[in-house]
Amino acid sequence: MRTYWCLMTFLLFGCIDEFPLDADNPPAEPVIEGLVTDLKGTSLVRISTSLNIQGIRNGDSPTAGSDASVEVVDSHGELTTFCEKSPGLYRPEDESFAGTIGYSYQLTVTTTDGRTYQSNWELMHPGVLVDSVFLFFEQTLIPGTQQLTGNHDFFATVSNKLEQNVNFRIESNGIAQVAAYLDPPPPGCGAPRCAEVCYSFRSPINRQIVLGSTKATLENKLTLQVAEEPYDFHSRYFIKVTAFSLSPEGVKFWNSILTQQQIEGSIFDPQLNEIEGTNIINTASNQSIIGYFGASAASADSLIFNRSETAGFPTPIPTATNSCTEVWEGATLQVPVQFR
User: How far apart are CA 238 and CA 261, in angstroms?
Assistant: First the structure.
């Protein structure tokens, strides 16, 4: 019995160590993704506290880095302030801002707690031209039924007018015109069932990173698949395909992100801290953080089409209680300029 009480006394009082509270730990480093282009309206900086770079998502709603000071300076001393447009998303205060091929750019971010992050200088290299966007419809049967479904596969043809090789990244964004029956019908409907139209923003469509190179292309042209979208509704659809030139450092970074997308969950998979090509540091510690700031020549082309015409059959219309936006992700009732 005496041995028992000694053991209990040791367990209760002899192994008590002090552990630091979470509040004593330094704040997590942000993830910063920045881009300056020569195409108006496409330059941006994203700041978050979880890995939220295109294609890699930690949770549906990563905590944003709001109220930061964000500035970009070019190699000729011109300073551009970026303003927060939505939580964690910053765009140039001057909406007409566009970078210049051959200039170098540097990003500086200061967070609300006074930490400062700065990128390496990034040279804007020439890019490719997006000549055309087109699609194919791939029809399939829903397993165990006679109901048709399918995907729209999008392709782009790009050209290179330069003698040297150009590396680039493709980003595709879409807007789907969709609808839902309202149940119960709204006042003034005048019919047993009334549908409401809304617009679903798919940004980006291609969650998988799409990289390209014009090396060894035929007649300096290249066609590649840029996105795939399930056929979920039978009305009009808008897609915009943008190609961004990449520096050698940018190629290394985006290839590393692509590797992260392809991991299978084994013990041999690369860890997030092994992402290569990150070019942003904490100026106090001189340590790099996850993220990248790039300068790209950009080119874009778009396509608007009727999905039912390309597929050959309609889709069911879902039912919503109050609004079409309830059943379609990223939807709004406001008509985008592309559909006016």
Answer: 26
Q: Are residues 51 and 194 in the same domain?
A: no
Please return the burial class of 108, using the count of CB atoms within 10 Å of its CB with bins 0-12, 13-18 and 19+: middle
Cβ atoms of 245 and 128 within 8 Å: the answer is yes
| Pairing status of strand 89-92 against strand 291-296 | unpaired
Residues 265 and 327 in one domain: no
Give the residue numbers spanning the domain of 226: 129-245+299-339
The residues, any chain, with a CB within 8 Å of residue 6's CB and separated by 6 or more, are: none
21 within domain boundaries: no
Helix (H) or strand (E) holding 253: helix 248-261
Same domain, 146 and 217: yes
Distance CA 71, CA 109 (A): 7
How many domains does the chain divide into?
2
Q: What is the CA radius of gyration of the chain?
A: 25
CA angle 116, 62, 40 (to 5 degrees): 65
The upper half-sphere exposure of residue 232, i.e. CA atoms within 13 Å in the direction of its Cβ, equals 16
User: Would residue 154 count as lying in a domain?
Assistant: yes
Q: How does pLDDT run across 198-214, given as a tens digit for each residue?
A: 999 998 898 788 999 99
The two tokens of residue 59 are 């949770």
Alpha-carbon distance values, 189 to 181, 186, 195, 319 (Å): 11, 6, 9, 15
Tokens linked to 309: 């015409």
Residue 11 within any structural domain of the chain = no
Convert the pLDDT of each residue in 80-136 to its tens digit. 999 999 999 999 999 999 999 999 999 999 999 999 999 999 999 999 999 999 999
